[in-house]
Amino acid sequence: MTEATDFLRIEHLTVAFAIRHRWLGRTEQLRAIDDVSLVLKTGEALGLVGESGCGKSTLARAVLQLIRPNSGTVVWLGRSIERLSEREIRPLRRDLQIIFQDPLASLDPRMTVGETVAEPLRVHRRDMDRAARRAAVAAMLMRVGLNPEDINRYPHEFSGGQCQRIGIARAMVLNPKLLICDEPVSALDVSIQAQIINLLRDLRRDQNMTILFVSHNLAVVRRLCDRVAVLYLGRVMELATVQELFAAPLHPYTRGLLASVPIPDPLRQPQRLGSALAGELPSPLAPPSGCVFRTRCPRAVDACAQQRPELEIVENSNRSIACLRWREPE
What we know:
- The chain is of the alpha/beta class and 330 residues long.
- 30% of the residues lie in helices and 23% in strands.
- The chain is built from 11 helices and 12 strands.
- It has helices at 56-63, 86-89, 113-124, 130-143, 160-172, 190-207, 218-224, 242-247, 252-259, 269-273, 302-306; strands at residues 6-21, 26-41, 45-49, 71-76, 79-80, 96-99, 178-182, 210-214, 227-232, 235-241, 312-313, 320-321.
- Strands 6-7-8-3-9-10-12-11 form an 8-stranded mixed β-sheet, sandwiched between helices. Strands 2-1-4-5 form a 4-stranded antiparallel β-sheet.
- β1 and β2 form a beta hairpin.
- The longest helix is centred in the middle third of the chain and has 18 residues, at 190-207.
- The chain is globular and about 70 Å long.
- The two termini are 40 Å apart.
């Protein structure tokens, strides 16, 4: 039974896509998410990190049921939602909102800013009249740092950072309980990234909002999140608090990710590159047997090809790791 403190519980979630080879005439299964279990507490921010193609965005969309999982459960406030019909799940979307990666592509170019931000209110708050909606839109635009006088302008008239603020206003106008951020700052320059992250931190604090934050930018995750789940080929490799993960990463993949982040130190940076990830991400159509990271792992042994490591809790800590050799010294 789900505990009262569990805001969102994901249990053994699997998402697979059927890939049909046109010329070979056969169909293969691509497992984008492979038996993932996670728990979010009320008011916390959980980061999902990993290389491109590791299943981060697929997991986020499966939580919202934008992609239906093949197996497993998604328990939202004590209620399983993965088998609900679209009609049954529609009322829940008021409290489940998402910010997409590309700020301009996620906005309808034919709708004004006012129409874009007011659309969720028209769908989910039919008790509000036109004047109330307009007031709510103006207040939210101010909250995200935009001018309410721009309500009749179109997305192409704004910069990338301003468009992302419009997307945040659209998601936040309903005061959702869970906000999923799918690479919300990857298309923005560094200075605008900092502004958007500060805005999300303020909104989270003011509204006690829970955030699932998808990113490959570890510096951004470190600034915003409480805990981090590291994904590789659809599996969780390590789960830890931000402090634990950045101070002492246990999994070789986590260490490689952190070593791949450049630092402004000409003396230390060349040494770090020696610990960075090598090789290419294997095809998810044919993942390695046993531990999926073994083909790139500097510590892999024969047993890693035979046995799949399960996510286990590390003693006297708040972290979990999926590695057969994590207890052995380097």
